[in-house]
Each structure stands twice: as structure tokens, then as C-alpha cells.
Specification:
Elements (H helix, E strand, L loop, with lengths): L14 E5 L4 H12 L3 E6 L2 H13 L4 E5 L5 H15 L4 E4 L14 H29 L2 E6 L12 H21 L4 E8 L6 H6 L4 H8 L8 H12 L10 E4 L3 H4 L6 H10 L1
Parallel strand pairs: 1-2, 1-4, 2-3, 4-5, 5-6, 6-7
Helix pairs in contact: 1-8, 3-4, 4-5
């Protein structure tokens, strides 16, 4: 964990609900929000993972609880909002990070496989936003922060399902920023690039590709969960109080120069391994 450029109390008194918060990028964001004073509610499908994440956060002196649930089910979204308000009395920040992904060429992608990712990423984001509206409106100075990607800025083979879902999240965020701004709800999006210390990078990048990806990024390195966490703290802080509808790309400039760094045969071999 890097030294933070923000004051330790930058988010003091704030309450954040984080979907997908038990692992990966979203756990990293949870740590950063928590170490700057936010009280946390983590949501995910695997209760044991959530429990371990909360224990790890509490060891750092961070107030954290969890609620198990699937964002694809609206009733679960309502349950998570209710649990957050019951635990902390309010909700200030909703971070939508629950996501699904796998590699598959489109000509082999099933309708159900496409729908699964759309439902987790896009429908799940909508469900959480809609269920949280009344609580965020009551907070008056609140934030919805969606986690997207840069895959759809150009083209990424084996990822048509994910690209469609993330493009939808970007569009939804802009719409809600316009519709809900009058209620004091800001809506922003973070689009991470290749983040090296995550399970997704280990699963989805061909062996050895991490070095090639890093070499092609203008800043010459992969991102870290701290990079994304710091971006989240900024957007959640008073420093960003006049920012809404923004998609903040955090990828070291990678999407500007992104090459087709491996051929189809390599991707298909990786996809076959699951």
C-alpha cells in the first residue's frame, strides 16, 4: 500500500457500499476509501470471501461490514441498501464494481454467455443505482462511482460481451449524471487499464503478456490497485464536488497506443484453458 497524497480524514463520516468489494480492484478501492475515513459495506455473492475481506479491513482499523447478494437480482440490491442504512444510518457513496469476464471469440459465444456478463455488469449497475436512489437523494451530497474499462475505446478480441456491457455502463452513468444531478447525486466512472496485481490480469492475459503490455503503455508500467483506489478517493472527496458525468481513464495512457499485442491463435489457446 502506497503513501496517500490525501488527508487521512478526507472521507470522514462518509458511508460507502461497494459491490464486488471482496476481491481485486474493488477491494483495493475499499481499502483506500476506508483508510481515508469512510465506513464500508461490501457486497458480493461469496460470503466467505466477504468475511475475509472485512476481517482484513478491520485489522487496518477500517469500519467494514458485508451483505451477501447477487446484483442481478433487484431484491438483493434493495437488501444491500437496507443493510447499509441499518448499519450506518445512511448511504453516501455507491461503488458499482461487480463484474464478470471470460475470454471467448464471438462466433463461439453463446447467447447465455453474452447475457450473463450483460446482467452482472450492466443490469447489476442499474439495479444498484435504482435501489439506492432514495438513500443517495436523502444524503444530498452523494456519489455513484461505476467501474468500467477501456476495452471498447478501440477493439479487443474475445471481449465483445464485456465491451458491450462496459459501453452500456458508460452511457448509463452519463444519463444518470444528467437526471439525478438536481438531487445532489454525482455520477462518475473510472475506466482502469491493465492492473497488474489482480486475478483478472492473471486469468485474462496470455503468459508473459504483462511485460509486453507494460512496455506499450506510455508510462511504461502496469497499473496497481492503489492507482485506482486513489482515483476513487479523489472523486469521492470534496475536491471533485463539481465533477459529474466524467469518465476518468486510469491506464497510464495505454488506450491511446493500444496495439493488437497477440494474435487470435494465442487468445484462443488461453480461452480454451478457461
Amino acid at each position: 500500500m502506497s503513501t496517500s497524497p490525501f488527508r487521512p480524514d478526507a472521507l470522514a463520516g462518509r458511508v460507502a457500499l461497494i459491490t464486488g468489494g471482496g476481491t481485486g480492484i474493488c477491494f483495493g478501492i475499499a481499502q483506500e476509501l476506508g483508510r481515508h475515513g469512510a465506513r464500508l459495506m461490501l457486497m458480493g455473492r461469496r460470503e466467505e470471501v466477504l468475511k475475509e475481506a472485512c476481517e482484513a479491513l478491520k485489522k487496518q482499523g477500517i469500519a467494514a461490514a458485508y451483505v451477501a447478494g447477487d446484483v442481478r437480482e433487484y431484491a438483493n440490491a434493495e437488501k444491500a441498501i437496507a443493510a447499509t442504512v441499518a448499519a450506518y444510518g445512511k448511504l453516501d457513496i455507491l461503488l458499482n464494481g461487480a463484474a464478470g469476464n471470460f475470454l471467448c471469440p464471438t462466433d463461439k459465444l453463446s447467447s447465455n454467455g453474452f447475457k450473463t456478463v450483460i446482467d452482472i455488469d450492466l443490469l447489476g449497475t442499474f439495479n444498484m443505482c435504482r435501489a439506492a436512489f432514495s438513500s443517495l437523494k436523502a444524503a444530498k451530497d452523494s456519489l455513484i462511482l461505476n467501474i468500467s474499462a477501456t476495452l471498447h475505446y478501440q477493439g479487443t478480441i474475445m471481449q465483445s460481451h464485456v465491451m458491450a456491457a462496459k459501453a452500456g455502463i458508460d452511457a448509463l452513468g452519463k444519463n444518470l449524471a444528467c437526471e439525478w444531478g438536481e438531487f445532489g447525486i454525482r455520477v462518475c466512472t473510472i475506466a482502469p487499464g491493465a492492473i497488474g496485481d489482480t486475478e483478472g490480469m492473471r486469468r485474462l492475459a496470455p503468459l508473459g503478456a504483462d511485460k509486453k503490455i507494460a512496455a506499450d503503455v506510455p508510462l511504461r508500467r502496469l497499473g496497481t490497485t492503489d492507482d485506482i483506489g486513489s482515483a476513487a478517493v479523489f472523486l469521492a472527496s470534496s475536491a471533485a464536488s463539481y465533477i459529474t458525468g466524467e469518465i476518468l481513464v486510469v491506464d497510464g495512457g495505454g488506450w491511446l497506443t493500444k496495439p493488437a499485442f497477440v494474435d487470435r491463435a494465442t487468445w484462443e489457446k488461453l480461452a480454451a484453458k478457461g
